[in-house]
Amino acid sequence: MTPQPQMLHILIIGVSLALFGLDLLLPLGVANAVLYAGVVFLAALSPSLRLPVLTAAGCSLLTIIGAWFGPSIPGVPLWVALSNRTLSLVTIWAPILFLAQRRQTETLLRRVNESLETRVQIRTAEIAAKELALRQTQEELRALTSRLLTVQDEERRRIAHDLHDDINQRLAMLALGLRTLEQPEQALPESVRATLAQSQQDILLLSEDVRRMAYRFHPSILDDLGLDAALKRLLDDFTHRTRIKTLLVNPPCSTSPSKAIATTVYRIVQECLSNITRHAKATRVEVELFSSERELDLTVRDNGVGFEIDAAQHERQGLGLFNLRERALAFCGTSRVQSQPGHGTEIHVQLPLSEPPSP
Question: What is the value of pTM for the model shown?
Answer without folding.
Answer: 0.54
